[in-house]
Design brief:
single chain, mainly beta, 1 helix
């Protein structure tokens, strides 16, 4: 019987009213969850143990976060490229590392995360969510950046299968999640094929994560939920219903990686919708102990980040 979680099981841990909350990723070293407000230009850190909330004004769009394998620095995706940022250095500003050539001026970076080899995969999108001008990039700690796929309207994800041999990437407005085979030694994807589209009226696939059982958890933009799926068949195994329509990303964290942290957005909602969704743009948390636990996110620059 598929599980269905709603109501009091869903906690609002930060009513941030983010225009476009995104980028959830757990920090093992800080015991906290990173997330961002892309349109508000905010990098945020929530510590569930203490309840503390910290934020940094990035001074532009910031869409995804990965910790470096060594040291306190973060790799961020800004509007037009990859940047390094030290959140503990007073007055620090992001230092641009690389801006891919050939990106249309009307594009911006969106979702992204690191694979098990420490390479960051990030995608771009048309700011107006209309043109198929987005691309998927692979960026290494050696500074080498490769454009590995193109023709996306909005790149979301990626996430990987438990054995790291498959990579899942969403094109949100087209309601498509693609799956690739991946050679982890070279980082080369191949054999792109359709994996899943959401049913009509159930929103569009946004950010994703993989749990320790190998299942995929998918945020539904416009669908007010996160759904859990079998990684092979795509069959839905259950869902979490949230008090906000635009759900953007999710990441496991907390003790035993048994809490799912979920971001949401206010953009695209009119005043009437916001009246009935006062928590739109919040960060939510759901305890999944006994049902699911997550995997530690990989850090930028090295495969031995959790040895």
């Amino acid at each position: 019987m598929p599980f269905d979680i709603a109501g009091d099981a869903v906690r609002c841990v930060w009513p941030a009213a983010a225009a476009l909350g995104e980028g959830t990723t757990w920090s093992e070293q800080r015991q906290a969850v990173w997330w961002v407000d892309i349109l508000g230009g905010q990098l945020m850190l929530y510590s569930p143990g203490s309840g503390s909330r910290r934020s940094w004004a990035i001074g532009g769009h910031v869409s995804a976060v990965a910790e470096y394998a060594e040291g306190p620095s973060l790799l961020l995706t800004l509007r037009h490229g990859f940047a390094r940022f030290d959140p503990e250095l007073p007055g620090a500003q992001p230092q641009l590392l690389h801006a891919p050539a050939g990106e249309p001026a009307g594009n911006r970076f969106n979702d992204g995360k690191c694979d098990a080899a420490g390479r960051f995969w990030g995608g771009t999108m048309d700011f107006d969510c209309e043109a198929a001008s987005g691309a998927l990039y692979r960026y290494g700690a050696d500074g080498h950046c490769s454009r590995v796929d193109a023709g996306y309207v909005v790149v979301n994800g990626p996430t990987w299968s438990q054995d790291q041999r498959r990579m899942y990437v969403a094109d949100t407005p087209l309601n498509r999640i693609h799956v690739f085979d991946v050679d982890m030694a070279s980082g080369q994807p191949s054999r792109k094929r359709p994996w899943l589209s959401l049913p009509a009226g159930d929103g569009l696939p946004d950010g994703m994560t993989t749990d320790a059982q190998g299942r995929l958890w998918i945020a539904h933009w416009g669908g007010g939920c996160v759904s859990c799926h079998d990684a092979d068949s795509g069959a839905e195994l259950g869902r979490i219903r949230l008090p906000a329509q635009h759900i953007t990303n999710c990441s496991f964290g907390g003790p035993g990686l048994q809490t799912l942290f979920i971001s949401s957005a206010r953009t695209g909602l009119d005043e009437a919708q916001l009246q009935v969704q006062p928590l739109a743009g919040a960060l939510f948390a759901v305890d999944l102990a006994g049902l699911a636990s997550g995997l530690l996110p990989h850090r930028f620059g090295g495969p031995h980040d959790h040895a």
